[in-house]
Amino acid sequence: MSTSAACLFILRKRKIGEEKSDIYRMKLFPLLPLIFILAYIAVAVSIVLHDPLTASYGVLIFSLFFVLYFVARYYRKTRRRGQNN
Prior knowledge:
Largest sheet: none
Number of strands: 0
Strand content: under 5%
Order of helices and strands: HHH
Structural class: mainly alpha
Helix content: over 70%
Shape: flat
């Protein structure tokens, strides 16, 4: 969840959606997402300290989907290049 919230910073830096007039602006932008991220990091640390086995399952699942994302992204790029040639 904290990585999802961190995407707000990435999207804002890349100015994704800035050209739209109906884009939602968040008050206290950098502060509220940072509090959200820190709260989820605190939850994650608590889980690691109290139930390390469950935490390791979570890290394993997250890692698998993280790798799967980049594999799918790679294949999508190569498929697009093949269609352009």
